[in-house]
Design goal:
The complex is a heterodimer of chains A (472) and B (199). Chain A is α/β, with parallel strands linked by helices. Chain A has helices at residues 8-15, 42-51, 81-97, 112-118, 150-159, 184-195, 210-213, 217-225, 241-247, 256-267, 317-330, 356-366, 384-392, 395-402, 451-460; strands spanning 17-19, 27-30, 33-36, 61-64, 100-102, 127-130, 144-147, 161-164, 168-175, 203-208, 234-236, 279-284, 291-293, 301-303, 345-348, 376-379, 405-406, 427-430, 445-448. Chain A is built from 15 helices and 19 strands. In chain A, the strands form 5 sheets. A 5-stranded parallel β-sheet of chain A has the order 5-4-3-6-7, with helices on both faces. In chain A, strands 17-16-15-18-19 form a 5-stranded parallel β-sheet, with helices on one face. Chain A has a 4-stranded parallel β-sheet with strand order 11-10-9-12. Chain B is built from 7 helices and 7 strands, in the order βαβαβαβαβββααα. Chain B has helices at residues 21-24, 79-87, 99-107, 117-129, 157-165, 169-174, 177-186, and strands spanning 6-14, 64-67, 91-94, 111-114, 134-138, 143-146, 149-152. Chain B has a 7-stranded mixed β-sheet. The chains are: A alpha/beta (472), B alpha/beta (199). At the A-B interface, helix 2, helix 3, helix 5 and helix 10 of A face helix 6 and helix 7 of B. Bound molecules: iron/sulfur cluster. Iron/sulfur cluster (SF4) binds at residues 66-67, 111, 113, 132, 134, 350-351, 411, 414-415, 432-433 of chain A.
């Protein structure tokens, strides 16, 4: 009998199965790469210590400081004592258990999901976990990448495996060519608006189609990153020549024969032609506009050319109730043009959009211009390496001349755990991934946007696309 | 994890439904970096109320919580389980648990037994008539006994087996040590390694 045709995700699962679960027990999967940061790991290390256990594979584990780190004055002691303690705990744990760590000030410090790919540690066909929901980012390489809880972090540290319940598969088919000014961020915001924030629950998403193939690795990362905002367990893109080219010269990429062997295997990592997905979704990329959110969950988004929707236009009573509450929180009225919404802060950063291409794209729009008077703009590179590269290209100067703040790497205003927060009632256009109530600061209002929209908005002072700039 | 088979401890009646994890442990305690020592955080805001059940001397040493339906809803914080456990609770009985809480509890050796609403009421009445009374929870037969009352409870079979064997997920996985060793031998050489560091 011929082998059953498999999807990409099922192939990776098959190749990582250590023990098949029997009579209701979950499958035990091997974990190839474990990324660690300061916020979800201290209790996991504490658990190891209490049980007298070691880290099984320090050589498959790497830590970086990102969630709770300052983005200014990084050479001074961290002012907030609780944050400082949390960072010091990670440093202490890394030392005690022999784990590689990239601390504040280190060239490879940065957001955990920027650092892994940058070092060439994220590869096709591997399993990646991290105590952070946006681990889905790494799926852009054709890896199976999942966010986990603190008990699971401890489990992976101790055993390098994880018991996992089976998943369902969903194909997200995006065909066609994106119009000028429309980006990966707009694709994923449109996908989430289409399937809803719970639409991906229990699924691993595979993004497919000509529009996905045409994207750079960084664009693919932006898309996979927000799979979690659709409720999915993971998101992925099959590896191709774009993937291999991106990886080739990275510090930890395989070399010599290993490279050839790897590429041969990676090429097999495509969904078999006659494999069946549990669900399929279709999206026409050529019809997309820049997309922005108006509400307080990432599914509440519209075209930038649209207006704030009327809650009565939602037939589902839960959605209607959510819309009413969201508009109240966001202080918006139905029918207002999205482009008439004035913002106070523009945040360019986060693991969704803080890589070099994001910074280049924004810098190109604002080059030689001045920011609107009502705007504060903060640019936070995803890693120190990204920051350095941007400086070598002169992008920092463009941002500073424009009137933006040029910061050190970290999660920053994405979650406002450090001092980078919005004031109550303040409105932001953010390239990050979550617009929940209070996410960027108590009472803060967030519109999720692409880097291009962020840049144009900073110039005009209201939500805008580069096309709206005319010749000003 | 300690084996759990039959356990007797002071029963605490918590006559509330929808006890979400924010109430079990408020967010302010999540900044801590330890996995133990959360006993002071359990029901922190309710404990400001002198009338709250755990503030009554007969219940202060509670170990079996009998709560209303929809226990453990809301945020997925594992700290909620840690706080119950650190305070001394070994069992929570409720007519309905939130999925995530139930999963987290099973990982930490806290038994979550699902009982009928009628049985919850019978237990509350009996406990309130005898403050400080002990309840015996038998995981082998899935029955809880308090004096002459006996109620049966539900718990999924896989979790029950793990608790009876005293296997936390890690200990359980370590029974597959050989399979893991074997798997590691088959891993291709091109797989990523973080050490030695290359920049
Ligand atoms: S940038 Fe934001 S979403 Fe990404 S890891 Fe940091 S806090 Fe999480």
């Amino acid at each position: 009998m011929a082998e059953k045709p498999l999807t990409l995700a099922e192939k990776i699962w098959r190749d990582h199965l250590v023990v098949k679960g029997e009579s209701g027990a979950p499958d035990l999967l091997y974990i190839d790469l474990h990324l660690v940061h300061e916020v979800t790991s201290p209790q996991a290390f504490d658990g190891l210590r209490l049980a007298g256990r070691q880290v099984r594979r320090p050589d498959l584990t790497i830590a970086t400081e990102d969630h709770n780190t300052p983005t200014i004055d990084i050479d001074k002691p961290i002012a907030d004592p609780t944050s400082r303690t949390q960072i010091e705990a990670l440093r202490h744990n890394a030392k005690e258990f022999g784990i590689r760590i990239h601390s504040l000030g280190d060239i490879d410090q940065g957001i955990v999901h920027v650092v892994g790919p940058q070092l060439g540690l994220t590869m096709p066909g591997i399993t990646v976990v991290c105590g952070d929901s946006h681990t889905s980012t790494h799926g852009a390489f054709g890896a199976l990448a999942m966010g986990i809880g603190t008990s699971e972090v401890e489990h992976v540290l101790a055993t390098q495996t994880l018991p996992l319940a089976p998943f369902k598969t969903m194909a997200i088919n995006v065909e066609g060519t994106l119009r000028e000014g429309v980006t990966a961020k707009d694709i994923i915001l449109a996908v989430i608006a289409q399937i809803g924030t719970g639409g991906g629950q229990g699924y691993v998403l595979e993004y497919r189609g000509s529009a996905i193939r045409a994207l750079s690795m960084e664009g693919r990362m932006t898309i996979c990153n927000m799979s979690i905002e659709a409720g999915a367990r993971a998101g992925m893109v099959a590896p191709d020549e774009t993937t291999f080219a991106y990886l080739k010269s990275r510090p930890h990429a395989p070399t010599g024969n290993n490279w050839d062997e790897a590429v041969e295997y990676w090429k097999s990592l495509v969904t078999d032609e006659d494999a069946v997905f549990d669900k399929e979704v279709f999206l026409d990329a050529s019809a997309l506009d820049p997309f922005v959110t108006w509400g307080t969950n990432p599914g509440q988004g519209v075209s930038l050319n649209d207006v704030v929707p009327d809650p009565d236009s939602f037939s589902d009573p839960n959605e209607r109730a959510a819309a009413i509450r969201a508009l109240e929180y966001m202080d918006l009225k139905p029918g207002i043009k999205m482009k008439d919404i004035q913002v106070d802060t523009v945040f360019l950063g986060s693991c969704t959009n803080s890589r070099i291409e994001d910074l280049r794209a924004a810098a190109k729009i604002i080059s030689g211009k001045k920011k609107a008077d009502n705007i504060r703009m903060m640019v936070v590179p995803g890693s120190q390496k990204v920051r350095l590269q941007a400086e070598q290209e002169g992008l920092d100067k463009i941002f500073k001349d424009f009137g933006a703040e040029w910061r050190f790497a970290g999660c920053s205003m994405c979650l406002g755990m450090n001092p980078d927060q919005l004031a109550p009632g303040e409105r932001a256009a953010s390239t990050s991934n979550r617009n929940f109530e209070g996410r960027q600061g108590k009472g803060a209002r967030t519109h999720l946007v692409s880097p291009l929209v962020a840049a144009a908005t900073a110039i005009r002072g209201t939500l805008s696309a580069p096309a709206d700039l005319g010749d000003n | 994890m300690e084996k759990f088979s039959v356990f007797s401890g002071v029963a605490v009646p918590l006559r509330r439904s929808n006890v979400d994890t924010d109430q079990i442990i408020p967010a302010v305690y999540l900044k801590r970096i330890t996995k133990s020592g959360f006993e002071d955080a359990l029901f922190a805001s309710w404990r400001n109320d002198p009338e709250f059940v755990l503030n009554q001397p007969a219940f202060a040493k509670g170990q079996v919580l009998v709560a209303g339906p929809d226990f453990g809803t809301g945020s997925s914080r594992e700290h909620a389980v840690w706080a119950l456990r650190d305070y001394g609770f070994r069992v929570v009985l409720s007519p309905k648990f939130a999925d995530i809480f139930r999963g987290n509890a099973g990982k930490q050796g806290l038994v979550t037994g699902q009982i009928s609403e009628a049985d919850a009421e019978r237990l509350w009445v009996a406990i309130e008539a005898n403050p400080g009374v002990e309840i015996t929870v038998d995981l082998t037969t899935k029955v809880a006994r308090l004096k002459d009352i006996s109620v049966s409870f539900e718990i999924d079979e896989y979790t029950r087996w793990r608790l009876l064997e005293g296997l936390d997920d890690i200990a359980l996985t370590l029974t597959h040590q050989l399979a893991i060793d074997e798997f590691e031998k088959r891993r291709p050489a091109w797989m990523p390694k973080t050490l030695p560091a290359r920049n």
